[in-house]
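[job 0417] fold request received: ABC transporter ATP-binding protein
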Amino acid sequence: MSLIKLNNVGKIYPLGSQQVVALADIDLEIGAGEFTVFAGPSGSGKTTLLNLIGCLDQPTSGSIRIDGRETGGRTAREMADFRLHHIGFIFQSYNLVPVLTAAENAEFTLMLQKIPKTARRRRVEELFAALGLSGLEDRRPNDLSGGQQQRVAIARAMAADPRVILADEPTANLDSQTSEDLLRLMRRLNEEQGTTFIFSSHDPQVIHLARRVIRLKDGRLESDRPQSPAAGT
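[job 0417] inference complete; emitting structure tokens
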């Protein structure tokens, strides 16, 4: 069974007296453990599609199922609860809380899930070790480099073992070497832990390392092709 299934999904935004078709007729299935990128130019619909899968917005038409659960027709509170327990997010602007330490930022989702503090800290210590962040637990975001902040964001996204992690232009604010290092790190986590990653990006580095490239153009699927593991080596 597919982890994510979209059936005839469309999204229309009102713009004054006009309507903007952001997505149309999207039929798509994504399996567990995939490392996939939605690629395309600005305005192609890739971020809108990521937001719909992430339950940050709802489609105008069609249906979306994640892990067998229908996401449509939910209240804002129900969508927030679904995101909390099933989806991890990595944003291009990191979205770390500046007054919290790196460890506290990484624990944030677990805290919302009311996981005991000892268990939260143990999980974050494990992730920081895997992500090369050991020793930085007590630093605040402003005392970290851009790459370190994005690693903390990855730790936060992975802390609760979500079914899928969504990353919107995760390399946009990073230099090319830091971007490549982080992408290879995420691919290693995908391979070793089976975490499903879906990216929205026009960055050639992201596209190169993806195992599946889904291209969008003018709100429609233009192509969908797998890439061999050798493509990222």
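[job 0417] notes: The chain has a mean pLDDT of 92. The helical segments are 46-53, 76-86, 102-112, 117-130, 146-158, 176-193, 204-209.
[job 0417] exit 0
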